[in-house]
Design brief:
The chain has 370 residues and is an alpha/beta fold. Helices cover 40% and strands 18% of the residues. The strands form two sheets. It has an eight-stranded mixed sheet with strand order 8-9-7-10-6-11-12-13, sandwiched between helices. Strands 2-1-3-4-5 form a five-stranded parallel sheet, sandwiched between helices. About 8% of the residues have low confidence.
């Protein structure tokens, strides 16, 4: 049986294909390019063999189709990639054929019946379908492919933001458990002050809903008012991920972006909206060198738990205070039940401080950082 991923931005066609025999559609229809790479990453340990991926050429995303094809082939050379174009377009065909994509079809000549045949039948039958859909003979198609392969085409369909460090991305996401009572000294801002000299691209996410303060500390006091205006302006954007990014993003400088003011977005249908925020964070994982997310320590809610579950690196800020160490130990134990990865501890000095030797003994299973 063929195991197939669809990335058509067409959920109805995905559902129709799931009804067909000998086809196993393993996913809900993907609506942005990076989602293809995410699902390949998710299933790599599940020993699921993917035979084919069907992609809509106009699928939204930060990466170009050429780069997407290379990244898919890097994960598995045997996956057959099929592209659907809106209509006949020689320039786009050149790009695909240059990247050894042999199966290219047109949206206005395709439906679930002939698409299921394409996915099921052997090569000789598929060639007949190609003739019917493209209205060209197989012999002419071969000649066309041979001639096009000798040409080069650098046309860009999607233009991602320019980034000098594109090839050297460090895909690092860190979740920092802040203490709102001690908000004058944010660890995330200390990290940024060390990273900014390296020209690193940084995404800072303030998930301390009801207590967002990073925009104030970063001299963006009017940020929340601007976000309220953008909420009205962007209300008609159907893609939730794009809506969040356009509405709740504040540019700090050319290398640092802040996402804040998410309280209003999370007001209704919280579970689905938390998932959308996590998808946004994952989507930006390749765009930024570092993603730093602040949450409120000791706040046991769905948002925190979902973030802890999905993000490997957790830094807990602990006040070196004899009276509070027991509370901190209980918090760490709770987090470890959700995320089994090693937790890092950052210690703030205090008058009632405990010696480093005792702290190391109390938190011997965790890593204490400077």
């Amino acid at each position: 049986m063929n195991n197939i991923i669809t990335a058509l931005n067409n959920p109805k066609l995905n559902i129709e294909l799931k009804k067909e025999k000998n086809i196993n559609i393993i996913n809900k229809d993907i609506i942005y390019k990076e989602g293809i790479l995410e699902i390949l990453e998710e299933i790599k340990d599940k020993k699921i063999k993917i035979n084919k991926i069907i992609i809509n050429y106009e699928l939204p995303g930060e990466i170009e189709n050429e780069e997407l094809i290379k990244l898919i082939k890097k994960r598995n050379k045997k996956i057959e990639i099929i592209y659907i174009l809106e209509k006949e377009d020689k320039e786009k065909e050149k790009i695909l054929e240059k990247n050894n994509i042999k199966k290219i079809y047109y949206k206005n000549k395709i439906n679930n019946k002939n698409l299921s045949k394409i996915l099921n039948e052997q090569k000789n039958k598929e060639q007949n379908i190609e003739k019917e859909i493209k209205q060209k003979s197989y012999e002419n198609q071969i000649k066309k492919i041979q001639s096009i392969r000798q040409e080069t085409c650098n046309r860009r369909i999607f233009k991602p933001q320019k980034n000098k460090h594109k090839k050297n991305y460090v895909h690092q996401i860190t979740l920092i458990h802040e203490d709102f009572k001690n908000d004058t000294n944010h660890l995330s801002l200390e990290l940024i002050s060390k990273l900014k000299d390296k020209e690193s691209k940084i995404l800072l996410v303030d998930m301390k809903t009801n207590n967002e303060d990073l925009h104030k500390i970063l001299n963006k006091n009017n940020a929340i008012n601007k976000i309220k205006n953008k909420e009205v302006k962007n209300r008609n954007i159907k893609n939730e991920i794009i809506y969040i990014e356009k509405t709740y993003s504040i540019i700090i400088n050319k290398n640092i972006k802040l996402i804040t003011g998410l309280k209003a977005y999370l007001k209704n249908n919280q579970e689905d909206k938390i998932k959308n925020i996590i998808k946004l964070i994952k989507k930006n994982n390749k765009k930024y060198n570092y993603i730093i997310i602040e949450i409120l320590k000791n706040k046991n809610d769905k948002i925190n738990n979902e973030l802890i579950k999905n993000i490997k690196n957790n830094i807990i800020i602990i006040n070196n205070d004899l009276n509070k160490i027991k509370e901190e130990k209980i918090l760490i134990d709770k987090i470890k039940k959700i995320n089994k990865n090693k937790i890092k501890i950052y210690i703030k000095e205090n008058k009632n401080k405990i010696s480093k030797e005792i702290l190391k003994e109390i938190f011997k299973k965790e890593k204490i950082i400077n």
